[in-house]
Amino acid sequence: MTIMSSWKRLNVGVVGGGIGGMSTAIALRRAGHEVTIYEKSDFAGEVGASVSCAANGTRWLHEWGVDVAKGDPVVLKKLINRDWRTGEPVSVYDLDDYEKRWGYVYNMFHRQYMHAMLKDSALGDEGEGPPAKLVVNHRCREIDLKASTITFENGVTAHHDLIVGADGIGSVVRGILGIKPEKRPSESSCLHANVDTEEAVRLGLVDYSQDSALEYWGGQEGKWDKIVLSPCNGGKLLSYYCFFPREQGDYSTQAWGTDSRPVEELLKPYPALDRQVFKHLSIGKEIQPWRLWVHDPYPYLHQANVCLLGDAGHPMMPHQSQGACMAIEDAAALGILFNKQYFNGDVAQTLVAYEQVRLPRVTRVQAAAAKAAYNINERIGFSVNKDTPTYKVEDPKKVLTIEEMNAYDMYRDIEEKLASIRGLSYTDKFVCGLPVGMELPNGVTIGATA
């Protein structure tokens, strides 16, 4: 590796100790920097249930040396879309050759287990770079952009060479950077429920854990009714996300972590639902509302020596299962840009490159996730199953494909953007991290002129 003669170790402050914050700490630690994570509560953890980590996220976990087995994942083998009433498969996307094609598996984690796995890598002694520090009960109040200083609500101040706002969808750092979200409640609402696989089997119900699949009921032809099942904890837990029109129940202002909603509330929107999955929902536990807001893309991701990451910088609807992967990719981009090969000591210039690398990609996924909210055929995987009788998409040339996500070479993307910023020539045959001439299943050829 070529070491930049002007490289220097930075003192980095990460605001937010969730999945994005921990990923950032790992990536920048591996790049040789000192990282302090500031968590607003008295515990850095996660709430919720399952979280997807496709190959474009899993690859960075391996590159960073994360012990993935600690997360107790389910390795997905299929995506299955089922008929709303009968449960019969309508569209199946097979992932049997997924690892062979993309080099990494598609993991499904329980959110708390994934967070603990990342936290161990960020704070533990093992692995390259100085272990990150975690400071709890530090809620960000303001940031002096010129002085690069954070002031917390408890009166403590901290100076850092680089500050990363990884403080989620309600980001304080985002507001400090002057970004005022254009947002509106989604037209769909969501309740989440957990089902214990052992209990379902004991009651004689179908054992969906055997499918090792992300499974969907409905989601066709513009309807808001959709059930999403994702197995986690090695298949021991079945995580259900249950969507329905907002007029049937508006949870846009309710937070996760309150008392469990009654099971009758969960079942009410689904009188015609396939009885097999309906019976699963009838034994659902920890029924929680999930606030769904549609955010328009933000105009930028950084100011001075401060940048945004993950949901703080690009909240997206969950319907492409890419939210966590995009946060992990953000972290990976910072880790590469600030490593000994690429970082020239200029933090603000490097964040210009970060924004140029990340903003187009996350905006693309954001828009695709909004489309897939009401049409499952827009979802990665199903988006290329054109032989499905119900297949219809807004624009076949614009569907998001698995190739775009997993053939992406972030190193090439970064080199292209840095060359432009630094006035250097870039001769590799890549455009935005994708190989020139690559033909996507949607009929688009990378680098071809219109």
UniProtKB/TrEMBL annotation:
Residues of the FAD-binding domain: 10-366
Gene Ontology molecular function: any one: FAD binding
Pfam families noted in UniProt: FAD_binding_3
Origin: domain of life: Eukaryota
InterPro entries on file: FAD-bd (IPR002938), FAD-dep_Monooxygenase_BioMet (IPR050493), FAD/NAD-bd_sf (IPR036188)
Keyword Secreted among UniProt keywords: no
Keyword annotations of the record: FAD, Flavoprotein, Monooxygenase, Oxidoreductase
UniProt entry tagged with the keyword Oxidoreductase: yes
PANTHER family associated with the record: HYDROXYLASE, PUTATIVE (AFU_ORTHOLOGUE AFUA_1G12410)-RELATED, MONOOXYGENASE
Protein family: Belongs to the paxM FAD-dependent monooxygenase family.
UniProt protein name: FAD-binding domain-containing protein
Species annotation: Penicillium canariense
